[in-house]
Design goal:
Length: 574
């Protein structure tokens, strides 16, 4: 099936929490994981308590919880300081009437205030909605509107992108800045927190109560609000143990932004549930800064993405010699296929195995992974997490034998499975259309040793630099441009970004194709929707291929682009 079959990298150092995968898989019991939480004894549940306060109660208050740096700031917070700050934040939210079940969004670049806000929101039992800082007006409005958000935490720089007059439910905006001007509906986050009490009551919730709402893209319609509950902590803790291999003394760095699920499940919850020191780096990607971060904080466990590893690979080997990376013990990747070439390079230049992990926003946590304790087959996503049953099934739910490609599916339920698509029950049902299974939308096959190999996505969702982009949202923005009559958007394979966004556009009467117009249209999407959703390539066409019902056939556009046969054209317009 694959030229990659047969290449094996031996199992890692036995520092793993899981010495034998097979044994761990067979003897696994979720109830053993549940015993790790204080609610197992007290019956009182809250993710923020388990992530922060519990460690203070256990006498670890002086341990560094957060090591933050960006080009302008460098700060560290102990667990006790995080407890105090999140208490202050909780008190301020309560003062503004925010209570259990309310949706409260955070829209800001990485900063200590972002992490404090996320946990403060969870402390009062509200549901946190993270928004990526690159989102522009339309993207921000759609998400706040769909969720019925009552409050938002943002910065003075991002505030102009929030169309308050169009969001009647949005009562309070907390602005994290200096000298925030008093105005109705605006609260000064910093001075309010400074004036608040450092002690707060935690809102005890049920395991099935709302925790976080992550908007993610599908191929049609607006982004979907993927709703997760406090019970997800069981999966976060478990995978923090067996996949991230976290230990008491670890300094852990997840490079993802909390605007995406990796940046919350594994940038906030898993490391803090384990009480390790969490490194957060803001600012742009730069190979020198990244290596400096590892050296400076003596990072031991590093979780990043193929696109970043490819860019580091592109930066070459010389730069690596300038830094001491010897603290690294365990390296992991997520978001898109991890090229075997990158795994080989990791062995060569870092002398470390890069462990691929597979999961999705909807799954809330890692499901198929490479473990420290098991051999890696470069190009494979690995094997199911203990407690998880994965299979390749056909469209009727029949399990397929090894090497047959089909739907990558997971037996329902598991602790961090999404519980709702906000306001969209039919979308939710689609994932569970085959009884007993969650259908991921990815295709894959399994080999005779039980390793899973990613093949592709079934729908048109674009994966650019590990970020999921719905073609429909981009097309909708494109047709708002006065020159654009119709637009079709596809992912075009790219060696560094995995895929880039390519837009096929037909122009309205009176507009002529030009390079300037392409640049202007790309800028329009960048400024209206977000930078990562802007097409890097635009091609003008007189007409776009459509079905008789008027749907743009992205499959045909993709075939044009890749010089492939277009397949069944029976439904095409003409
Ligand atoms: C989609 C989910 C959850 C982490 C960040 C992405 C693709 C994810 C891998 C991997 C090949 C991968 C899949 C998946 N994907 N990890 N290890 N190998 N593809 O979350 O934005 O919800 O995207 O990303 O297509 O369905 P997401």
């Amino acid at each position: 099936m694959s030229q990659l079959q047969g290449e094996i990298i031996a199992a890692g150092v036995p520092s793993s929490n899981m010495n034998s995968y097979e044994e761990a898989y067979q003897n696994f019991n979720w109830s053993d994981v549940e015993k790790q939480f204080s609610w197992h004894v007290t019956g009182r549940v809250n993710m923020a308590y388990e992530a922060i306060d519990r460690h203070v109660d256990a006498g670890k208050g002086d341990k560094p919880a957060l090591l933050f740096s960006d080009p302008a700031r460098e700060e560290s917070y102990t667990y006790e300081q995080m407890q105090e700050q999140t208490n202050r934040c909780a008190n301020v939210l309560r003062k503004y009437g925010i209570a259990k079940g309310d949706r409260v969004f955070v829209f800001m670049p990485r900063s200590p205030e972002l992490y404090i806000s996320v946990l403060g929101i969870i402390k009062v039992g509200a549901v946190v909605g993270p928004l990526f800082e690159a989102f522009m007006e339309t993207a921000v409005k759609d998400r706040l509107e769909d969720s019925g958000a009552v409050a938002l935490v943002t910065t003075p720089e991002l505030l102009p992108r929030v169309k308050r007059e169009e969001l009647p439910l949005l009562k309070t905006i907390f602005v994290v800045g200096d000298n925030v001007a008093a105005e109705p509906g605006i609260a000064d986050w910093k001075s309010e927190l400074a004036a608040a009490s450092p002690e707060a009551e935690i809102e005890w919730v049920n395991r099935e109560d709302g925790l976080i709402l992550h908007y993610t893209s599908g191929s049609t319609g607006k982004p979907k609000g993927v709703y997760h509950v406090h019970n997800a902590m069981i999966q976060h803790y478990h995978t923090g143990d067996v996949v991230l291999d976290l230990k008491e003394g670890d300094v852990y760095w997840c490079t993802a932004d909390p605007g995406w699920v990796t940046g919350t499940s594994y940038g906030i919850f898993a490391p803090w549930l384990h009480g390790v020191t969490n490194v957060v780096r803001g600012g742009r990607f730069s190979p020198a800064d990244w290596y400096r971060t590892i050296e400076k904080y003596q990072v031991t466990v590093w979780y990043s993405a193929p696109t970043a590893f490819r860019m580091l690979m592109g930066a070459g080997q010389d730069i690596i010699q300038q830094y001491d990376l010897s603290s690294l013990r365990h390296v992991l990747s997520v978001g898109e296929p991890l090229n075997p070439e990158v795994v080989r390079w990791g062995m060569k230049v870092y002398n470390r195995r890069i462990h691929d992990t597979w999961w999705m926003t909807e799954t809330g946590g890692q499901l198929i992974c490479n473990y420290a304790s098991m051999p890696i087959k470069p190009g494979s996503m690995g094997k199911p997490v203990p407690g998880i049953q994965a299979a390749i099934i056909d469209d009727n739910g029949k399990e397929l034998p090894p090497y047959r490609m089909g739907n990558l599916a997971i037996r329902t339920p598991w602790p961090s499975m999404m519980r709702l698509i906000w306001n969209n029950a039919p979308k939710y049902e689609e994932y569970f259309r085959i009884p007993g299974w969650y259908i991921s939308g990815d295709t894959a096959y399994m080999d005779e040793d039980g390793y899973f190999w990613f093949q592709g996505r079934i729908d048109d969702v674009i994966n650019s630099s590990g970020e999921r982009i719905g073609p429909f949202e981009v097309e909708s923005k494109l047709v708002e441009h006065p020159a654009v009559a119709e637009a079709g958007v596809i992912g075009k394979p790219d060696p560094v970004r995995g895929e880039i966004i390519k837009a096929f556009i037909s122009l309205r009467e009176g507009f002529t194709p030009s390079e300037e117009l392409k640049a202007e249209i790309a800028k329009f999407v960048k400024e209206g929707l977000s930078a990562h959703a802007a097409p890097r390539e635009i091609e003008f066409k007189d007409k776009l291929p459509k079905t008789r019902s008027g749907k743009i056939m992205r499959r045909v556009l993709k075939a044009w682009e890749l010089n492939l046969p277009a397949g069944d054209l029976s439904t095409i317009e003409d």
